[in-house]
Amino acid sequence: MERKIKVLGTGKYLPKRQVTADELDERLGVPAGWVEKKSGVSKRHYVTDETAAQMGARAALKALEAAGLSLHDIDCLVCASGTAQQEIPCTAALIQEELKLTRSGIPCFDINSTCLSFVTALDVMSCSMAMGIYERVLIVSTEISSVGLNWEQKESCILFGDGAAAVVIGRTPDTETARIIGSSMKTYSEGAHYSEIRGGGTQLHPSQYAQGREADFTFDMDGRKIFRLTSQRITGFVEQLLAAAFVKKEQLKAVIPHQASGMALRIMAGKLGFSDQQMVNILANYGNMIAASIPLTLHEAIQQGRIQRGDRVLLLGTSAGLSLGGVVLEY
Amino acid sequence: MERKIKVLGTGKYLPKRQVTADELDERLGVPAGWVEKKSGVSKRHYVTDETAAQMGARAALKALEAAGLSLHDIDCLVCASGTAQQEIPCTAALIQEELKLTRSGIPCFDINSTCLSFVTALDVMSCSMAMGIYERVLIVSTEISSVGLNWEQKESCILFGDGAAAVVIGRTPDTETARIIGSSMKTYSEGAHYSEIRGGGTQLHPSQYAQGREADFTFDMDGRKIFRLTSQRITGFVEQLLAAAFVKKEQLKAVIPHQASGMALRIMAGKLGFSDQQMVNILANYGNMIAASIPLTLHEAIQQGRIQRGDRVLLLGTSAGLSLGGVVLEY
Fold first, then answer.
1. What is the ipTM of this complex?
2. Nearest CA of chain B to the CA of A259: how many Å?
């Protein structure tokens, strides 16, 4: 199950426009301080003219720079996002285009498990690399949630932010110990409709967007139901994942959680018994960035020196589906 | 590179409503016989009340039946489609729900490289299985193109049909030789906009659907440009793939091509020098079913007895991106 795969470099891109909790208080017509208190998010970014592919490409260049690599060192590009730039083709091909690799032949495809897309892509692609298919894979999570928020649903619209994060992974040199130690994912579709955007696909085509149906094309969330299902499942999930990886909770230098919401992060830490030193919480400055949250949090933890080579790290999240997912790795 | 993974069973589902070339001649106001001659498609199916998840679930049950397995023998469900049922969550979770596996925990996610999604999923998931992550994976391609066709673009709208195909893959018993022998994918985003649906994602949100912009939310294709780019690349691509797999053209019992169009199939056979005996062509009865075409063609070839255990088979296609992809396997 172990894979001798190493995180070589990470990068991020944030849209130019920053949106404060105060600004959203005004927009929503709620008392000053309500948005920040309710969401745990002081500021987040919204795109103005940036596209998902542009943000992804900029994060990718930063990740390559951090890894000391050039674009042509990459032999696969995976976009791991919960949102797509356009229906066809996959966003990875559009990122390749932005990177001016249009004749490179570098294979491009998307992996999507909503907020867990990065975790799924890391898990799956580390296996392809361990089997000798690829040498260095660029995984890009790039999300624009701001176009799909329901401003009538105050509880959910205040949580999100736009942005991108990218991670380059490669095979670990023989003399080093970095590796994927274990991974797990569980999907419970009893919660498939607890968080969703019903429209936009083949069931409710954009042509059906009309007065009165707008809400079907924006994000809809039942926070209480998600909380209940997640609470039931997450403790057992993490215990099994860590046991299978022969890693104890206290051996984890850092837990990189999906930045779902302030409440989600408090519950996760509390229920699972992780300390504040372990839990990396960057929610206040970014909001929930869908699949970009976990790689961005990993990036910040590395930048802040909270993770060093040799440290054991848990990436952990929940997503629409409803899914739980995690990867235990040695950085 | 080899993976001891076996196709255990295949299945399909076709919508109840069948649409003939004659019916489309009338709809488009073209002379009788034009649609069939131009597309090579005599009939295809369009959904009436079926959803993508329902079609996928029905195909999945057939594939499990063919494999002699039950739903609970599966430990991963991948939806490998170019279209999604709704924006969030991933279609795989919705298929799990249709299969009444709502509390099973079976991990669900989507892999998308448009028409090559099945080939990509087979490639990637066979590596995860070879690394011991999963025992038996259900890959489902389920496509509804009929809601997203541009009836003003006669050249493209006549090609497509709706439907689903599913394949169960498992580890090969020690006494057998079935395996993935080789795989390759190349993406040339110089062709990223040769076939696309520009709207529906974050760049052109459904809220922007309005009089005059409808075409942005339907499929747009420049057949001549696709033809030119594919022609330049496909011979070298197939030669490299077969050489790396140590398989000669004449050793292939069957070539399972993406059923892109009558012209695409003729060009592929001609340029690559495959015989009519090798090329499996089911286009006339189904049309281009996006990612479902390749697994459906595999299913038909198995059903018709054109592929036996021990035979070497090439899955081969092109997709929006523009990508070329193939897998060489021993059935």
1. 0.97
2. 18
